[in-house]
Amino acid sequence: MTCFMKTIESTVFLLAVTTLLAVGDGTARADGVLVMNTNAAIGKYTKAQEAFVNEIRRPLVLLDIEADRVDSARLAREITSANPRALYCIGSTAYQLAASTPSGRYLVVSSVINWKRFPLSGRTHGIANEVPASLQLTMVRYLFPDVRRIGVIYSKQYNKEWLDVAVANGRDRDLEIVGFDVARVKDVHKALESLPGRVDALWLTPDPVVFSSKEQILHIYSKADAARLPVFAHDPIYAELGAMLVVSADIPTIGRQAAGLVNDLINNKASTPGFQDPVGTEITVNLRKVEAYDVKINFSALGSVNRIIE
User: Domain check: are 146 and 261 in the same one?
Assistant: First the structure.
């Protein structure tokens, strides 16, 4: 629990704004990148940024939107001063700020929940935050052959499009995805009460309404455990709370993937706007919960798992 709480709080890592390298005449180099981090105190954002910085090998300006209190006027000044070819936006706040500030630059985005809910310009590219639902469900089917009905608590505001895809992917794998739409925090409690007996497992996906606070997260896992309901989650930290299966994107790989995309754009090797699926995944199975809930598992499938909790 201590590890989980430390991760949720995140260790503050304040990034100072650095100066974009200049060419001989004193003007900013035109092959540089402006990196916009929504909040560098959030661990997953920092991991993506560190991997990006180590991979990109271009002149950079680093902005912490939260700590530096960057607004549209400030961002416009930074863009004018740095003259970057691309903006790398980490988190939804950074992307929304960049998208609302006319710049004519490429926008490369990562670490946003359900990118499909955002309007995208013709110069927007990115790396999806979520492992494709199809891959997650394939792992469920492979590992837990008796699981057939999977409940999902979600908000239409953030995850309607994702759920529609998940339902179709589930149907292809002989799995029924049962959605429980919530608009407010109190709706989550009602949805949790209705799950036992209706579904074989609970699938949790990133959603600001469902994961509104640390207390809410703890409550969800406590109720699921009391009902002996397996939980499938999206972040390795939730295995410590009792998730039976976690299929997550590898954050440093996302940062490196974003750097490759920026390089391709600047070198005119990528022309189609849109988002790529993350190429790196991490799979965790909690055998303690498998045993506690008496869930049938395909042990031969454990060779595909990165981490096993025993």
Answer: no
32 lies in the same domain as 83: yes
Kindly state whether residues 117 and 12 are assigned to the same domain.
yes
Which residue would you say has higher pLDDT here, 76 or 269?
76
Residues 236, 255 share a domain? no
122 or 26: whose pLDDT is higher? 122
pLDDT of 22 strictly over 80: no
Same domain, 51 and 41: yes
Is it the case that residue 245 has pLDDT exceeding 60? yes
Alpha carbon distance 11, 13 (integer Å):
6
* Residue range 149-160, pLDDT digits in tens: 999 999 998 889
**156-183 pLDDT tens trace:** 988 898 899 999 999 999 999 999 999 9
Expressed as residue numbers, the domain containing 195 is 133-248+282-309
